[in-house]
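Dear Dr. H.,

I hope your travels went smoothly. While you were away I took the liberty of generating a structure for the chain from your last submission, since the lab meeting agenda had it listed for discussion. I wanted you to have the full record in hand beforehand rather than looking at slides cold. The sequence, exactly as received, is reproduced here:
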Amino acid sequence: MIGSLLALGLLLGLKHAMEADHLSTVATLASRSSSTRQTVGVAAAWGLGHASSLVVLGTVLVALGAALPAPVARAFELAIGLILIALGVDVLRRLRQRRVHLHVHEHGGTMHLHAHAHEQTSDQHDHRHGSSLWRRSLLIGGVHGLAGSAAVTVLALPAGSIGRALVYLLVFGAGTVLGMVALTLVLSLPLKLSFEGDRWVWIAVQCSLATVDLCLGAWIVVQSSAL
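The corresponding predicted structure, in token form, is as follows:
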């Protein structure tokens, strides 16, 4: 019984990492990484923050035999939406900071349109200092964990005791960390190729990230406000 429950917790943790708001958040954070090591660090930091807050709050709720109050759950969801919107705005800010613009050139009598970006010191500074990015990921992951604690706590209740529920939550959290690291490594390939490759591709990827963040964040804000 307990073995099946823990296996279920691991699988659900892996699945939990694939939720749209999680992927969008971590992909946007990872887009600022300058190496695979930083990318893994961002994903792991998000996962650890998520798992820590979920385990702590989930254990307290199980011990009290209580559910997260609906207004509090909505507040956490609202925070997630606002964070996504802020991340989308930050991507657009960085595009503007890099002064992305278009140039028309003539080569051999043929007109060509090229995208250019001038590097800014602050962006280079962000790439060199991964620790600040990891701390941000840890904090944002913690907020995500608080938002998901209500549903996960319900799944932990069949464990039958506080000790078993805690183990279930720990396994669920570990599944989330593993799933997020694996998915982020997969997502990091197109992000890295876009950064090192054609400027048009890089701009398209960054604009796509910003669009997804803004739209998903706005949707979550509307949904949490309407409940």
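Two observations you may find useful: Confidence is low (pLDDT under 50) at residues 101-105, 111-116, 118-128. Residues 79 and 143 are 8 Å apart (CA to CA).

With kind regards,
E. W.
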